[in-house]
Amino acid sequence: MLTVIKNARLVDSEIDRQGSLLLQDERIIATGSIDAFSALEAEAAVIDAQGQTLMPAFVDLHAHFRDPGLTYKEDLLTGAQAALAGGYTAVNLMANTKPVCDTSEKQAAVMQRAAALDLIDIYQAQAITVNMQGEELTDFSSSLTPLLSDDGKGIADDKLMYKALEQAAANGKILQLHEENPEFAPDITGLAEETMVARDLTLAAAAKAPVYLCHISTAKALKMVEIAKQNGVQVICEVTPHHLALADNPYKVHPPLRSAADCQALIEGIRKGTVDIIGTDHAPHSEADKAAGAPGLVGLETAFSVLYTVLVEENKISLSKLSQLLSLRGAEILNLEQGRVLPGYKANLTLVDLTVSRTIKPEKFHSKSHNTPFAGRTYRGEILWTMHNGKIKWRKETDK
Ligand SMILES: [Zn+2]
């Protein structure tokens, strides 16, 4: 089946121009000018994207879908629906489910159920330590995905962390690290994050292992990442939309929301290339759990609007740079054939309207959970539809 998407502003990490795409089944097979494929329109499905912007769908390497075991907060179906509504077609799920995902069998069980939904691509990370207890390493060699993580907890034992990095390097895996030193947590000063980042960059350099640092949030931690990169350490630096957008805000999340100076440092880190990727840390919680002090927020359905407003509109970062942070780097790390609007890539795409403003209404979320500090705030840009493997899997309802 052929599909023509015409009259779009096409944006990816390198491209920003008016044009059209020709799709065959699940793949992009050609790109051209705004009406390049008009001769094919009689035999193709035609989508006129006049006035709208077509981007590669987003990839989130840091999400919690709580399935199995905590499905009153989220499950694979509602998580996938929230992802699609946010413009995402691929997510990497953290291992802090019940039971903890610490074997390839548990990974396979989640990914088989996810595949049966036929909505998005779901990758389930294996934990770094058995039951995420920080005592014994899992079997890295059998992990079905490239990333392993004990996200939600730091690994306190220095020698075990070093051994984990050696194992990761030996098995071609990357550890995704939650940078929070329990000696200093709960962390208001930044020391919990900064002491852990200093340790892990030192150990990663010694083990010659690539390392993915989750949710870097302070200017000092970012500076350490910058220096480590200059010294040849293979570090992938993640920031979240909430740490970029919200300063001096008491909303409970780990790491906490920081100062305006820290936010500006992260934005500068994006400009300079110190920041590699944006992860949402989508962390659904029920109202009761949140009231009892559970940290985190749901991020998939607000990420694009928040990032477009804060980075592109307010800080003049290009939409191509945002596409690189949201789509290309994640696709590269997971080895996905998506992340560009070029022939040969999968037709995993999202159409966005950059002209409208949207007030965040958690009651409209597809997620089971509504915990967000963005409620009631207004941002520019919204998702109109999301396509996975050539098929539109989610479309915004028009309010009439
Ligand atoms: Zn974390």
Automatic annotation (TrEMBL):
- The Amidohydrolase-related domain, residue ranges: 53-392
Family matches, as Pfam families: Amidohydro_1 (PF01979)
Keywords noted in UniProt = Hydrolase, Metal-binding, Pyrimidine biosynthesis
Q: Which PROSITE patterns does UniProt cross-reference here?
A: DIHYDROOROTASE_1 (PS00482), DIHYDROOROTASE_2 (PS00483)
Taxonomically, which superkingdom? Answer: Bacteria
Residue ranges crossing the lipid bilayer per the database entry: none
Give the InterPro entries listed for this entry. Amidohydro-rel, DHOase, DHOase/Allantoinase_Hydrolase, Dihydroorotase_CS, Metal-dep_hydrolase_composite, Metal_Hydrolase
The record's section on CDD domains has: DHOase_IIa (cd01317)
Cofactor(s) needed:
Zn(2+)
Please report which protein family the annotation says this sequence is part of.
Belongs to the metallo-dependent hydrolases superfamily. DHOase family. Class I DHOase subfamily.
Relate the protein's function as given in its record.
Answer: Catalyzes the reversible cyclization of carbamoyl aspartate to dihydroorotate.
This protein is called what? Dihydroorotase
| Lineage of source species | Bacteria, Bacillati, Bacillota, Clostridia, Eubacteriales
